[in-house]
Sequence to fold (207 residues):
Amino acid sequence: MKKITYSQFFSKHDRKILPIIRKATVGIAGAGGLGSNIAFSLVRAGIGKLIISDFDKIEPSNLNRQQYFIEQIGMPKVKALRDNLRMINPFSACEIHEIKLNEENIPIIYKNVDIMVEAFDKAEMKQMLIESWLIRFPEIPLIVASGLAGFGDNEKIRTKNLGNLFVIGDETAELDDEISPMAPKVGIVANMQANLVLELLIKNSKR
Fold:
């Protein structure tokens, strides 16, 4: 694998905001369609550190929307994602946890993040994370996704701000067990989540 220098990688990054991004730690709960796409965007932006948790392994059906490759089928998602992120940007740290998240381990794993991002598929996991996070860390922003099934309806995808809770999606398109979400809409929502991470990091640094 070819090697590049720090100055080469960051030569086109905004010098005014790069120091803020470089010292930030962002948590991502889930390494599937949302989580892998969010992580890709944040390491390209130069984020200092990601903390990512997931207990799943890569399946062929994941490849329609998740940032993995055929030869990685069967690998734990967090390990494959860490490998892929290093190939993009070796200067961002990636701490991984191959574990199913719950109310007990979330505060331990993510206690030092500047921003938390929810990237689960299942509604009950989303709700669990929201409730436990708002109780334990109400002062730390939490960005969640809601409504990303299907395709089209770009104009319906929006961001709702509820204090330190941010909800991105159309909030109506529910997932179907028979049909996987599609890459374009998942990617849009994931990148809106990543974009909001950067916005909040810059905004909060000026306080």
